[in-house]
Amino acid sequence: MKSEVCTLVLALCVVLVNPMSLLGPSFTRYDPCGLGLIQFDKTLTEHLWTGVLNFGLYPDLNEVVVTIEFKDVIRFAWTPDKSEIFFRGNAKNLIIKPFGVPPKRYIFYVLLLAQAEVPVVTSFKLNNQTLCSEEEKAAQTTDSFNLTKEHSSYQHVCGRRSIDHTELVTTGADARDGDWPWHVAMFIVDAVDKKKEVYQCGGSIVSWTTVLTGKGFIISWTSFDREDSRHQHVCGRRSIEHTELVTTGADAREGDWPWHVAMFIVDAVDKKKEVYQCGGSIISWNTILTEDSRYQHVCGRRSIDHTELVTTGADAREGDWPWHVAMFIVDAVDKKKEVYQCGGSIISWTTVLTAGHCVSSKGTITEAHRVLLVAGTANLSDSSAPGLQRFYNFQAKKVILHPSYTDDLPTADLAILKVDKLTFTKYIQPICLWTPNYPYDKSLLFGKDATILGFGLTEKDVFSKTLRTSNTVVQTDAACIAYAPDLYPRLLNEFSFCVGYGPKYVINPRNGDSGSGLLLPVQQSDHKIAWFLRGVLSKCGMKTGAARCDPAYYVVYSDVAPHYTWIAHHAGLKYHA
User: Fold this and answer.
1) Can you give the residue range of the structural domain that contains 385?
2) Does 200 lie in the same domain as 71?
3) How far apart are CA 329 and CA 342, in angstroms?
4) How many CA atoms lie within 13 A of 122 on its CB side?
5) What is the strand order of the sheet 287-289 is part of?
6) pTM (2 decimals)?
7) Higher model confidence: residue 256 or residue 65?
8) 450 vs 463: CA distance, rounded Å
9) What is the pLDDT of residues 179-215, one digit of tens each?
């Protein structure tokens, strides 16, 4: 595929398959326990680190005492900010007390002894509340991201009763205590007379913290569509001949349990071979609930050894960015020939988000069976990478192009790749989508630091076999338009934004980085950072006659936030406020 040459002074280029230009020093950051509050950035001076306390994340703080316990002795610590900063007991326990209301961003410096390379923190306390500890680190494994395991007993024992209520149950009569142990009665307390309770509805216990009723609650693993509202009135009922008399502890009759389904898997080779897999429950006229529907997983997190210390502006390690995938296109004639095409981001265990132009050109969409994805690796030449998963997107899997996609604009330059179910590991994790829980006014992005990554062209104009990362900054529309008034006005709107350090630097995505994400760290309620996907790389600038992106120019991303509903629908994700 070749880029088109335009007659403008600057030409618009869809970032095609020709990684990233990186000149200058790399950037190393240490985030104790993955917290958003504290970070350490390595300086160019040997053993000197800049510490940052982001007090702005806690707007109600009036007085602050920070206690930091380091693994190794600190040679020296100081700050230009007005505060007390001193060691207590030994040179491992640092106390910081800003004067008055703390600044939004507090800067301090630590100088390490020669034998120490990183200011490793073993304990961090804010106003005597422990936010980071060795125990916390030990618990922060990828297994902990599977929230379903917190209720694993629920998955194995739901829908069962004790043996004396299982073998013999009479229906069409008053039930005994314990016959239907998941049923609850719901009463409404009078707004005036608190002692008056009026029976309202029934409900069903579906977890140890949740009751599902007709309209009162929507639980985390399913929801009711508006057009399916009739389902709320008729669910859980059977015809009269199956309601009054049912025998349990024996083979059921047809119609006794009309919501139960059997799920079979068709063999990938022998299409006539079907293997029983699971049971399921019909919960609406277009939805079946199986075990996977209850699965919950933390997004945007990494194992602790890839959370605390990460270097950007350099080659990534396996597991540093576990949601990034490389996308190849299999030649239509020579099935053994695979050509690198784009990057993408894992957003669920069956879904990768990439750029629309990576799978569509001039109205033709790439066939799904020709898409090959490589996940779990930071080195495409290392076939023995510990997390590598290679798989074709075939059979009933799909390439879904955004309905508003056009070749020339970044407004909806998005596509979804449905894949075989991924196994989440230390090296493969989903990234968070920018949900309606966060404001998506793009003006709030201006000036923010972000991380970019990809396998595209290097500054030496050769393909990179290793995943490269860099920091960048989101620019205002005005800054980009002022730089190239013939190019950016038609690319920038409420659905896109531009990124880069500008012409004085040559750190930018290039050909081959298309479809890769722009990543933002966002602090969560547990005080730790989760990484969110805010943009998908769409366009870059180049000089007239050039065939490759010029890293001196700003690049344009499609903003995923306004498209959350479309993405979540096709990814099978549910929004939680």
Assistant:
1) 10-24+313-571
2) no
3) 9
4) 7
5) 260-266, 274-284, 287-289
6) 0.64
7) 65
8) 23
9) 678 788 988 998 888 888 888 888 888 765 678 787 4
